[in-house]
């Protein structure tokens, strides 16, 4: 290839790439999320980046969004299995559980932090390659309802740990809308729910028009439908509000009761941030009970940053077993990139290094190296500067990288070691055997 | 899609997938490697999984091994940029440095732990998707030679930390073979080095035949060539052995001097494991000085588990700057999968959980949850069992998952909490406020 100009090496649209200081912050987020998940007993798994295309479309995704892979310079027809990059972590998880069923222990709680790929048109908050952080709990036959609240608590703990404060956790239950529609005499509930799911995008007016043209509903019925979708409260008062609509149906009652239990189980952390919001539908998904969607209060147009719900049978497409579960996915890249763009993330450190050991002269490099080893043996992250360039250059380097301490070995034997705190500018004598960043 | 039988959900050849206990071990390896890299001042970066195909083949890899990606159901011709999955982390790193040059601080030391993809025929130690763990240090204009030894020390520290003891670190210097060939009057050094690189695969006899037919060399010259490639010693005696061959060339001398310095810089950790091995060539790579290859003593057929070297100009294909560097890559998946297969990795834990809190009855679930929260607040990883199934089932679950402690809340108020150590079988009273796994 000919040599390119620097300017021609453009980023590939939709495939985010971070500078070291940005990646340092992203990695801190990932570590924090992982530690919360692990503290609640979730084990980690990873699945390959690819699945057979048949598996990827097994939930009904027939899809130009999926990226297929094939060896370059090889005819695609020739290559036996058709493989595609996974577009979420739920389908691979379902396939994983089905495939390894006999080797797993139930209840099975796993977390998975991996990249996923979607060939969509890139725009703010929408990438072609991005990280998702998923947790799910699945069990044979029957999964207790209190776990639906548990999932909310765990995800809120994770969001708070990474410094996301201004969020709203919208929760509902698929049985509510479904039962309500049945109670109204509507039988093609899937189609109507699919339309209602567009409320956020096309508004009430758009939904009205679609329902009139597609289902031929009259305006009174549509109004009744919209009435329930307007209920969004931070407490159990949704029960009275739904009752006031006068529609009765056993499935509706079941959904309301489950949602009430969920709201009860999370009220101690709610602070008004957890909303029983009967408009959310998650139309394209396979949820059968609780459903979740999290939005950032300050950036409502970003879309949901977490979503999930309860499903009665995750692995239904693959094996004949009843495996109910509940799960949530955090859209890490979406919220991280937004926070980065808005300047809400501190990116002053370009590396996790605690101490830069300066090298005052070539003849002192061995000593500098020894100091590095001694500090490292005491658990510190230490870089020894690569050469004996002027001390001001070495200080400038530490400052630019955000390394908090610079260690100065003595110029000659008998003199003291000194350490400079780059944040305060103070410099003091130090002993490699007992100096600590905290003193 | 129709429901598949469990047995039909086969693994996709070459795309490894681990059970939870295997992944737990792999993650511990990754954490250990990361901590060693970070302790030496390396920052983390990640690059997208894809690069433009032109970038991927910029080092001369014209290659059916590269996986291209394209949206399913979309004609490949239509989709502007041709994108391929990266097959190593060096090419993306070079592109990254070139693209972000003005925003990086030099010397730039980065580590990168990511999956890479190669469409090769899968076999033992050879995957289509696998993890590599790379470190590189690059600098403007001139990079001190002592870093070539540093890289060896860091990688040995990482290998030891993950429990790889039986390895051999083969080191050489590109200038030695190159200078030696020039000293013998051979000018097409690249082609001869390419052939010599096959020594491990086709043996001396195969190399002889190839050299005779391709370069038309006479047997005496070939014998002279093979003589240097037979030198492999764990100390500086390679100097005398090369001198005894009677070939003189300035580049040869430079390479010998550099290799001698490298051997001197690592001898305090060598224990006979670091070999000056003049047969290694790394023919297809762009190294210009030190070269490294690590093999497992017990599994020589596995191929190299780490490789790397020094290059004079990493970003040469992209920008007009002189950026010398030195780097090594650990082939994590190759060695991990081998160790797993050979039973050399303990996989008794399926999760990092410290304590399972048992739930003696539904009415005590709130108490169990509180205990979980209290232990978690003290830094422990805690799972509260999902229901109040029989205690023996809960114990069996903890045992199968390898959770070391089970906490029993009292059946009724006023009684004591107790904790069972699952490894010793002992059970004792405990207080959630001060109990520790270490007591």
Question: Can you describe what's shown?
Answer:
- The structure is a homodimer of 439-residue chains.
- Chain A contains 13 helices and 17 strands.
- In chain A, helix 1 packs antiparallel against helix 4, helix 5 crosses helix 6 and helix 5 runs antiparallel to helix 10.
- Chain A is α+β, with helices and mostly antiparallel strands and 439 residues long.
- The mean pLDDT of chain A is 92.
- In chain A, strand 15 and strand 16 form a beta hairpin.
- In chain A, the strands form 3 sheets. In chain A, strands 1-5-6-12-11-10-7-9-8 form a 9-stranded mixed sheet.
- Chains A and B meet through helix 1, strand 1, strand 2, helix 2 and strand 3 of A and helix 1, strand 1, strand 2, helix 2 and strand 3 of B.
Average predicted local confidence, pLDDT of chain A: 92
Apparent shape of chain A: elongated
Range of strand content of chain A: 15-25%
In the sheet with the most strands of chain A, the strands line up as 1-5-6-12-11-10-7-9-8
Q: Give the terminus-to-terminus CA distance of chain A.
A: 54 Å
Query: What proportion of the residues of chain A is helical, as a percent range?
Result: 25-40%
> What is the strand tally of chain A?
17
Poorly predicted ranges of chain A (pLDDT <50, ≥5 residues)? none
What is the CA-based Rg of chain A, rounded?
27 Å
**Major sheet characteristics of chain A:** 9 strands, mixed
Largest Cβ-defined interface: A-B, 97 and 97 residues
Number of H- or I-type helical stretches of chain A = 13
